Amino acid sequence: MRRQALTGDPRFLAAEPRPAVAAGLLQRFTNIRRDEVGPALAAGLLFFCVLTALMVVRPAREALGMQRGIEAIRWLFLGTVLVTLAVNPLFGALVSRFRRLVFVNATYLFFAFGLVAFYLLLVLAPESAGQTSGQVFYVWFSVFNLFAVMLFWALMADRFTLEQAKRLFGAIALGGTLGAIFGPWLASELARPLGTPALLLAAAGFLVLALAAAAWLARQRPEQGRAPEEDALIGGSAWEGLHEVVRSPYLLAICGYVLILAVMSTFLYFTRLQMVAALGTDIDMRTAMFARIDLITQVATLLLQALVTGHLMKRLGVSVTLALLPVTALLGFVGLAIAGSIAALVAFEATFRAVQRGIMRPSRETLFTVVPRAERYKAKAFIDTFVYRVGDVAGAQTEGLLKQFGMGLIALGAVAVPLAAAWMALGVWIGYAQLGRAQGTQQAEGETA
After folding, report:
1. Maximum Cα–Cα distance for the chain, whole Å?
2. What is the rounded CA–CA span in Å between residue 26 and residue 320?
3. Tens digit of pLDDT for each residue in 210-265?
4. What are the start-end ranges of the H helices in 340-386?
């Protein structure tokens, strides 16, 4: 019997242990190895909780932000830039003085208490919850949105190597997409029986669950991870992130990439607001249209993250995956200028957001696996919050200026197309620069050994 098994008798091959077969299938479709299942699940659960918290209250932000019209949102973007600039040194000081799990927990708890504070305002003083407080909430949520997601990905870059990031980040991002789908569904189920304020408490609850997931992730020890240094203090100054960005061509290039990303996203955002606003003033109709676009986007993102992203980064490299979104933007704005219909908008935005979240975002986050730990948190925080919001303001003001001169989608496309071409070239350069940094690190480690 033993001889038959060794010589490959089909009866014995078929009896191969099921866990081994399952592990083989898992690695084939998701690129996750057996020893990485625990860390990947913990990371995916953490992202699920964070995105659920964000998406549960996002509809409230959109509704409150539009109370004074679309033009007011342009100025809210400027307020958000100033707040993110003020918060960055505070976050930098937190990163410098405390260990990783402490500042991760402190950041998420800070935002959870903020949600509770807004809940108390809505419940105990509803007469004070007018347009001004709505705009304050819009700015606060915009800062919360960026810092919560930025911190998650900074943690991922600190926990996984570049090789792991290329394979795992797509699958890990799948947890966030599931949260982005679950959050709006939960909001629709809770808003009617419990009221909108209850959504804020639900979001705070999911942030607390995120802390538990972060603790679970901290207990995992991936074979190729960065466990030996994960508990060390990072140190440095509160403004170290800005200093490193200014001194590093690599980080400056990432700044440029993120800046153009924000400008393009804002062009699309205001185009959507205006086209949906032109359909009528009924809030329910607008909400339904926004929800429809979000649903299509999330389903497409889900498929990309589950089946495509990890394989693309592994086989084609980061340069190609970073260039895909600029190509999508270029073709999308051309198509939108030609068609000019709500159907073209839905198709373009769903494709753009799906490629952004399903392919570009996991790929972009691998860029920070080849920089020092301080840059993974401090420089990344500056880029993903302040630089991104500067792009928001630039895009909003440019789109508004074109509108004032009576220029429509064709003029917007004339600005977006060359910008997308420059964006694509920048993405390709960054991908090759990352490869050079990774090879340099490997050579240095080999010489040290």
Report:
1. 85
2. 25
3. 999 999 998 876 544 454 455 677 877 778 888 889 999 999 999 999 999 999 99
4. 342-355, 361-365, 373-374, 380-381
Tokens representing residue 355 in the block: 């490629």
What is the predicted pLDDT for the residue at 188? Answer: 76
User: Are 152 and 44 a contacting pair, CB within 8 Å?
Assistant: no
Nearest CA to 359 out of 162, 166, 157 is that of 166
In terms of Cα–Cα distance, which of 230, 70, 261, 54 is closest to 145? Answer: 54
In this prediction, residue 431 carries a pLDDT of 92
pLDDT tens-digit profile of 399-445? 878 877 666 778 888 889 999 999 999 999 999 999 888 887 666 55
Residue 262 and residue 392 in contact, taking contact as beta carbons nearer than 8 Å? yes
Break the chain into its structural domains and give their ranges.
38-220+237-439
Amino acid at 41: L
Query: For residue range 310-320, what is the model confidence (pLDDT) as tens digits?
Result: 667 767 788 88
Q: How many CB atoms lie within 10 A of CB 72?
A: 14
Fill in the amino acid letter for 345: L
Q: How far apart are CA 336 and CA 343, in angstroms?
A: 9
Cα–Cα distance measured from residue 88 to residue 109, given in angstroms and rounded to the nearest whole number: 17
Rounded distance, CA 347 to CA 308, Å?
20
pTM: 0.81
Sign of the Cα pseudo-torsion (68, 74, 79, 84, in order): positive
State both tokens at 394: 């630039």
Question: Which CATH class name applies to 38-220+237-439?
Answer: mainly alpha
Residues constituting the chain: 449
Which tokens in the block code for residue 120?
């108390």
**Residue 122 backbone phi and psi in degrees, to 5:** -70, -35
Task: Answer left, alpha or beta for residue 317, where phi above 0 means left and psi between -120 and 50 means alpha.
Answer: left
Which whole-number Å values give the CA distances from 253 to 6, 60, 425, 428, 431, in the listed order?
55, 35, 11, 11, 10
DSSP-based three-state secondary structure for 71: helix
Sign of CA dihedral 302, 139, 364, 222: negative
